[in-house]
UniProtKB/TrEMBL annotation:
Domain Nuclease SbcCD subunit D C-terminal: 266-353
Keyword Nuclease (UniProt): yes
Molecular-function GO terms, alphabetical: 3'-5' exonuclease activity; endonuclease activity
Name of the protein this chain belongs to: Nuclease SbcCD subunit D
Assigned protein family: Belongs to the SbcD family.
Lineage, broadest ranks: Bacteria, Bacillati, Bacillota, Clostridia, Eubacteriales
Sequence ranges assigned to domain Calcineurin-like phosphoesterase in this UniProt record: 1-217
Job of this protein: SbcCD cleaves DNA hairpin structures. These structures can inhibit DNA replication and are intermediates in certain DNA recombination reactions. The complex acts as a 3'->5' double strand exonuclease that can open hairpins. It also has a 5' single-strand endonuclease activity.
Entry-linked SUPFAM superfamilies: Metallo-dependent phosphatases
Record keywords, A-Z: DNA recombination, DNA replication, Endonuclease, Exonuclease, Hydrolase, Nuclease
InterPro entries reported in the protein's UniProt record: Calcineurin-like_PHP, DNA_Repair-Maintenance_Comp, Metallo-depent_PP-like, Mre11_N, SbcD, SbcD_C
GO biological process: DNA recombination; DNA replication
């Protein structure tokens, strides 16, 4: 049994003034091409389908087209809500969609939904657990209401009682840790202060594969078969060095699980560049990539953003930073300061901030300014 695992589509997301809907549509079509080539037995969508609980009409249309294309291919879809989704909105029409093998778990109902597929090795049970908080789980376990995220997920999974002799797959959307080990995170992911929303990976021991969503970098946590697929698209510059993919999971006989990361190629990459303005402008032909530029020019640069957009029209962010030594606290004693002239003090301060001394022209200008000041 083979599944394509992806998550964190965040359809409708904007980064600053830029809408990413065209980029998202491009990658969803690429996932459909991968499905045509790999011929999986199902698709696992592990939450955060939309970027907002009330998605835009454009985002809903894009996802509707994607689900329709999967259904036309006869591919079962296993879909849960994430923390960015509205469970009720995502679950709308779910009972009707089952007829097309589109299985949606939007609202938690006391236990994960269970769907069973069969292959030459026997049944594969797929369990769908939407994003779960202790408060959402508590009404279903009044005798022992969970106080932590780990307790909530543990109680929910105990209610579904997976068959230990069969192959069991779980689709979930949580921040999962393994003891003191935490997964790699990005700026675009919201994690509670102190990691209070973590779920320990040990609660998943009964499952042969755990298809996770919530974190944007593809990675394992605890064991190889507990995995984040990562987002198919970069959503912040903290993800600039990530390589996006979808995960192809294969379950043979019980205990034999393997996977491959299938790379995705974006319509526009998200990159960081750094250097003097003139050097960045000479870097090459204009590119449509999303850019975070950091200028290291010592002198003020006039209209830097407009000039950069001639080569990088999708400039998202512009910072200024001297390519100099880092700032360091002055070790000069107060008595030393008192003995030094204003000219010397300013020259030392300038060099400490810029990593280079004043030029002859700058020294002359400073002298003129100080003389005028002393004359007033």
């Amino acid at each position: 049994m083979r599944f394509l695992h992806t998550a964190d589509l965040h359809l409708g997301k904007r980064v600053g003034e830029f809408s990413l809907i065209e980029d998202q549509t491009y990658l969803l079509n690429q996932i459909l091409e991968i499905a045509d080539h790999e011929q999986p037995d199902g698709v696992l969508l592990a939450g955060d389908i939309y970027d907002k609980s009330v998605p835009s009409g454009e985002a809903v249309e894009v996802f509707d087209a994607f689900l329709t294309a999967l259904a036309e291919r006869g591919l079962p879809v296993f879909l849960i809500s994430g923390n960015h989704d509205s469970p009720e909105r995502l679950g709308f029409g779910s009972r009707i969609f089952r007829e097309k093998q589109v299985h949606i778990a939007g609202v938690f109902g006391g236990a994960p939904q269970k769907i069973t597929l069969t292959d030459a090795y026997g049944p594969v049970h797929v369990f769908l657990l939407p994003f779960l908080k202790p408060a959402s789980a508590a009404p279903f376990f009044p005798d022992d209401p969970p106080e932590s995220y780990t307790d909530a997920v543990r109680a929910a999974l105990a209610a579904c009682a997976p068959d230990p002799s069969a192959r069991n797959v779980l689709v979930a959307h949580q921040f999962v840790t393994a003891g003191s080990t935490e997964p790699a995170r990005c700026d675009s992911e919201t994690i509670s202060v102190g990691g209070l929303d973590n779920v320990d990976a040990s609660v998943f021991d009964a499952f042969d594969y755990v298809a996770l969503g919530h974190l944007h970098g593809p990675q394992r946590i605890g064991r190889d078969s507990v995995r984040y697929a990562g987002s198919p698209l970069k959503y912040s510059f903290s993800e600039a060095r990530q390589h996006k993919s979808v995960t192809l999971v294969e379950l043979a006989e019980k205990g034999n699980v393997s996977f491959r990361l299938l790379p995705l190629s974006p319509l526009r990459d998200m990159r960081e560049i750094c250097g003097p303005l003139a050097e960045l402008l000479r870097a090459g032909a204009p590119t449509q990539d999303y850019i975070h530029a950091t200028l290291t020019d010592r002198e003020d640069v006039y209209d830097a953003a407009a000039r950069l957009r001639q080569v990088y029209p999708n400039l998202m962010r512009l910072d200024f930073e001297h390519d100099a030594l880092p700032n360091t606290p002055s070790k000069t004693a107060a008595s030393d300061v008192a003995r030094k002239s204003p000219f010397t003090l300013f020259a030392e301060f300038f060099e400490s901030q810029n990593g280079a001394p004043l030029s002859e022209a700058e020294r002359a200008l400073l002298g003129d300014v100080l003389r005028e000041t002393e004359g007033t």
